[in-house]
Amino acid sequence: MLSVKNEGKKVLFIVNKFAGTGYQPQIEGQITDTCGQFETECTIEFTRGPGDGVRLARAGSADGFDAVVAVGGDGTINEVARGLVHSTTPLGIIPRGSGNGLSRHLGIPLNVAAAVATALNGNVLAMDTFLVNGRLSLNVSGIGFDGHIANLFGGQLSRGLVGYAKLTMKEFLSFAEFDATLSIDTEELKATPFIIAIANSSQYGNNARVAPTASVCDDLLHINIIRKIPLYRLDFFYSVFNGDIEKSRFCTVIKGREIRIKTTQPVPYHIDGEPGGKH
């Protein structure tokens, strides 16, 4: 589920103007110019609220578009993908979010024109997906502190890496670990984590790799159970971006296909970085 190939096709681009740090009008021109170079007919639609990505993608598939391309962050990609589930229409990605975790994992260029060219002339990839409480997830979902931040960040006016970092530092000390029982396939364990990251791809975004060895094509999830890290352990935070997090004594990584999590109290969670509330 990634891109479309061959000239003379028609492609629908679904754009979230509110993704990342804001919309840049020249994006439309970059899309149309690049499509022209590949002799591809393009249609551009804009989302106006939650659920629009699903609706527009579903309509595009029904109308016979050869591919539907999500222009936004991981949340936008998730919405558009939900509209294409159970269809044969490929999904393309133009990363325009705050972190672009799935795009970075897949090696999709952050430059708009280059990403459009990749979507039009790349190879179609059959990738894994999974469900969280019945909702589709493509990248990384989680419960605990990352869910708490996602719930708060979703309502922030100031987005981007700087806004995310500021919010994380503000909330880090006050958020407590929680008791959980995890059943991963046939294995059961009890833990008191700060975060339980359920990873299909390797990273949250901005190259913060919570599961560096994860693959979207191996039919496995990487579940990283992370304890609360003392602020003075700067080596741990460095390892998140260096790709060494799985070696840390603060982490327990288990691979599996099915995971059930029971907690003693409601805990915030997220799906591909989008707020999920508490469960």
Description:
The protein is of the alpha+beta class. It contains 8 helices and 17 strands. The radius of gyration is 19 Å and the shape is globular. The mean pLDDT is 92.
Describe what is shown at a glance.
The protein has 279 residues and is an alpha+beta fold. 29% of the residues lie in helices and 29% in strands.
Could you give the topology of this structure?
Blueprint: E1 10-15, H1 26-37, E2 41-46, H2 52-62, E3 67-72, H3 74-84, E4 91-95, H4 101-106, H5 112-121, E5 130-132, E6 135-137, E7 140-144, H6 145-153, H7 160-172, E8 180-184, E9 187-191, E10 195-199, E11 203-205, E12 208-209, E13 221-226, H8 234-242, E14 251-256, E15 259-263, E16 268-271, E17 274-278
Parallel strand pairs: 1-2, 1-3, 3-4
Antiparallel strand pairs: 5-6, 7-10, 7-16, 8-9, 8-15, 10-13, 11-12, 13-14, 16-17
Biggest β-sheet description: 6 strands, antiparallel
Number of strands: 17
Order of helices and strands: EHEHEHEHHEEEHHEEEEEEHEEEE
Low-pLDDT parts are none
Please report which band the strand proportion falls in: under 5%, 5-15%, 15-25%, 25-35%, 35-45% or over 45%.
25-35%
Shape: globular
Distance between the termini: 29 Å
Kindly report the average pLDDT value: 92
Features:
279 residues; six-stranded antiparallel sheet; 29% strand; 8 helices; four-stranded parallel sheet; alpha+beta
